[in-house]
Backbone:
């Protein structure tokens, strides 16, 4: 295997061939091929892997190579086969080819080989939900019960509450099926199952593996519940799989996996009618093992040269079972192969290439490439700390004014859907996008896509939205459903590498510039990395409309957000506090953490913040950014011992930061209770000693003594009630949701209906406040709230469950274990797990004991 980067590396005969055919290469379809593209065209006596970077003209290179073979090497067009994974690529190739070269998707070509299946239609996987609905109509009562139980065990708390509120059984069942995503899970399982070559009889092997993993605690699955849940899913899939196979047979359909298997089997037995001399495969970095088997079998049957093109930096379909190692190890699978790199890009400016290249090379499994461009644009990547949809709308409105093409890209479908509705670009009618509004019609050349759907495309500008630090953020940090591990070896590090490649694909769609929208203090780790290693333009929400690129953006109407300082007793103090907050925030935004640390330490003793929790909170944020977990712990403890007041929401915030710091540092969490006890005894009493707070998160507007409100939830908070409602809906824990919901409950404008009572009851139950569960349930019976057929039974059940919890004494029994000093931590953990399984320990108590044991190895 040889790798070629430059013409000077070529043998003398190939150098002469280039000279003899210079006129062909100098003007192919009106363009001159660059040096590396020419090398790819003349290496024709071997298998060849062309590694082409983003925007380097890989399609143009493939077309040139094909026509060079036809015109200069006398290869018949019928002896060349073009294969791709998508219909759009095939259509583009057919449109641009000057000769009638056989061109097809891999699946369509495979189907054409199988005479007995030519009357069948390929089932592409769409509409599986309808097949599943047909299965439900024929399923037995036991199968329906199994599905119902499984779905109930896999609903989140919000959807479970909604389920409880439904009266009719059919409505409940439909809600379960919809919200648990069971049909998509089953489809994913079947695709992986068949893609790995499994058949119906292999379900026994899958069950055995699940049992073995449980018994050996593989993957940390500790409880019976996880094991039983997975076994139940396998049993459900087994029944659906049989129905699915029968459905395909009855409707003369064949899915991709069966078709590829049949095609491989036929080629191995009978050969192929057309002995192609060259097989071209586009987007080879996205190949799965099953498609690889098909192409390898086809190549061997034809004795053809295999030419593949792709970019390992853009391999983003691992969730579809693509395997990047098949691309990276191409020359191991085909020892006669050579490799060519195409590194001159015609899309991106050099500055963007350098940023993206440094970013992607953090992955260990990527080929090193030196992409070059003749274009130059200063600071093409801009980070905007503003997640407001109207700000994004204003940007794209201005970018698209001069007929510039703009992509709005999101990591998930939900990112795009939410943005469209938030900006009122599309009116929703009966659950579908029905009518584009007049506002949208004035914005030309704007496309909304997920990053996966934007691959292979380009625009003048890319606007990347919702780049947050969350489990469902960017990168996506969630582990896949457990059933994935039952079928294939799954590597979390490889998943994160693919997330990095996905981000690379997003920013390299841009020909001129990239605008990345995030939230301050909640930005993705990718944002931190880009800022640390590059000189980027950073734009904050308060500076957004003053930024040079957006001069023409219409100014927001902020009259409703202005407060007259004269309405406050200590207007000067408020103005000083607001200015101090503003200064500290700028230090944090500029990533001057050492300066920010010194500033907030001094602010603790500042006369305007003497009885304020704020400096401590900001100091914790500084240490959190610096990954200084011990100082996070020390600062939280110092605050609770300071005697200063904060509300319950802030207590929960400090607690969450303390827990994370303990987790990462190995520090014991038990000391938090001591601090909290001191706070409850002293700090809570000092509410009246607070300095007058600045309204919400205020900032002094230059040119006048008015304070502009900037809320984290929205720029147009209409009322305190509206803000409480938003905070309740966005709360990420039951404790925090309860804190805000209790405040809503006590307000006059709040409607105490059936749903409200159920939510309050559930929140008290989730936070182990069982006396209040009973109290709220009884209040419901005495209220005017709507009574349905099922609601009395629901509240009576809650009363019974809460009473049962109150009658038991889990703490006493668990205390006996604590006193058993001759047990190891592992043995204690097993004992607590046993209590939890029996219902003698609540989840809250079990989690707490588990953390204490894990953080105290002695």
Residues:
């Amino acid at each position: 295997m040889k790798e070629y980067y430059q013409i000077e590396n070529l043998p003398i005969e190939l150098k002469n061939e280039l000279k003899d055919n210079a006129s062909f290469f100098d003007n192919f379809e009106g363009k001159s091929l660059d040096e590396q593209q020419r090398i790819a065209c003349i290496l024709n006596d071997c298998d060849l892997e062309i590694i082409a970077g983003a925007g380097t003209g890989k399609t143009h290179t493939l077309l040139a190579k094909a026509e060079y073979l036809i015109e200069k090497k006398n290869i018949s067009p019928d002896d060349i086969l073009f294969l791709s994974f998508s219909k759009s690529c095939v259509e583009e190739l057919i449109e641009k080819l000057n000769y009638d070269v056989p061109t097809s998707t891999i699946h369509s070509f495979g189907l054409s080989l199988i005479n007995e299946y030519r009357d069948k239609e390929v089932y592409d996987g769409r509409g599986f939900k309808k097949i599943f609905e047909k299965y439900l109509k024929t399923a037995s009562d036991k199968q329906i019960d199994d599905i119902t139980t499984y779905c109930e065990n896999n609903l989140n708390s919000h959807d479970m509450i909604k389920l409880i509120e439904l009266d009719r059984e059919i409505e409940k069942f439909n809600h379960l099926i919809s919200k648990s995503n069971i049909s998509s899970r089953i489809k994913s399982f079947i695709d992986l199952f068949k893609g790995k070559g499994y058949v119906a009889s292999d379900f026994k092997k899958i069950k055995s593996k699940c049992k073995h993993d449980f018994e050996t605690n593989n993957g940390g699955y500790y409880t019976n519940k996880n094991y039983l849940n997975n076994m139940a899913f396998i049993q459900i899939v087994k029944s659906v799989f049989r129905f699915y196979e029968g459905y395909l047979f009855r409707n003369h359909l064949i899915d991709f996996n069966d078709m590829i298997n049949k095609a491989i089997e036929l080629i191995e037995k009978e050969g192929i009618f057309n002995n192609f001399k060259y097989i071209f495969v586009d987007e080879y970095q996205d190949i799965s093992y099953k498609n690889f088997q098909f192409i390898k079998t086809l190549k061997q049957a034809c004795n053809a040269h295999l030419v593949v093109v792709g970019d390992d930096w853009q391999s983003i379909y691992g969730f579809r079972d693509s395997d990047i190692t098949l691309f990276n190890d191409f020359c191991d699978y085909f020892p006669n192969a050579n490799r060519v790199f195409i590194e001159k890009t015609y899309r991106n400016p050099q500055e963007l290439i350098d940023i993206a290249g440094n970013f992607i090379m953090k992955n260990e499994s990527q080929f090193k490439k030196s992409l070059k461009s003749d274009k130059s644009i200063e600071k093409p990547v801009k980070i905007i700390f503003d997640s407001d949809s109207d700000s994004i709308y204003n940007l794209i409105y201005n970018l698209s004014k001069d007929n510039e093409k703009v992509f709005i890209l999101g990591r998930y479908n939900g990112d795009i859907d939410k943005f469209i509705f938030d900006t009122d670009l599309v009116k929703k009618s009966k659950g579908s996008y029905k009518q584009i509004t007049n506002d949208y019609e004035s914005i030309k050349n704007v496309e909304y896509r997920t990053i996966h759907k934007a691959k292979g495309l380009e625009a003048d500008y890319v606007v990347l939205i919702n780049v947050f630090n969350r489990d469902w953020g960017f990168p996506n940090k969630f582990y896949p459903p457990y059933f994935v591990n039952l079928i294939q070896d799954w590597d979390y590090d490889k998943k994160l590498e693919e997330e990095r490649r996905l981000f690379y694909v997003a920013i390299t769609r841009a020909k001129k510039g990239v605008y990345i929208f995030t939230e301050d203090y909640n930005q993705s780790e990718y944002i931190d990395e880009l800022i640390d290693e590059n000189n980027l333009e950073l734009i904050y929400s308060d500076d957004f409309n003053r930024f040079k690129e957006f001069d023409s953006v219409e100014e927001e109407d902020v009259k409703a957000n202005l407060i007259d300082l004269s309405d406050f007793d200590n207007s000067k103090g408020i103005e000083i506090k607001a200015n101090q907050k503003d200064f500290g925030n700028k230090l944090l935004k500029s990533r001057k953490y050492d300066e920010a640390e010194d500033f907030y330490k001094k602010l603790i003793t500042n006369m305007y913040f003497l009885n304020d929790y704020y400096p401590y909170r900001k100091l914790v944020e500084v240490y959190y950014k610096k990954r200084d977990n011990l100082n996070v712990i020390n600062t939280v403890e110092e605050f609770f011992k300071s005697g200063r007041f904060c509300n319950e929401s802030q207590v929960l915030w400090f607690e969450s930061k303390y827990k994370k710091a303990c987790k990462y540092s190995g520090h014991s969490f038990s000391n938090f209770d001591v601090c909290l006890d001191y706070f409850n005894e002293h700090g809570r009493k000092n509410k009246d000693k607070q300095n007058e707070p600045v309204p919400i998160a205020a900032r002094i507007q230059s040119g006048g003594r008015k304070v502009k409100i900037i809320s984290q939830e929205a720029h147009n908070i209409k009322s305190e009630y509206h803000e409480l409602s938003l905070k309740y809906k966005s709360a990420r824990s039951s404790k925090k949701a309860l804190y805000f919901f209790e405040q809503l409950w006590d307000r006059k404008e709040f409607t105490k209906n059936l749903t409200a009572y159920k939510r309050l009851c559930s929140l008290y139950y989730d936070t182990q406040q069982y006396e209040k569960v009973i109290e709220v349930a009884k209040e419901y019976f005495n209220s005017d709230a709507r009574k349905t057929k099922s609601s009395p039974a629901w509240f009576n059940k809650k009363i019974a469950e809460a009473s049962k919890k109150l009658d038991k004494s889990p703490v006493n029994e668990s205390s006996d274990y604590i006193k058993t000093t001759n047990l190891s931590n592992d043995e204690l953990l097993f004992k607590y797990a046993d209590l939890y399984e029996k219902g003698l320990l609540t989840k809250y108590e079990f989690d707490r004991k588990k953390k204490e044991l894990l953080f105290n190895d002695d």
Summary: The chain has a mean pLDDT of 78.
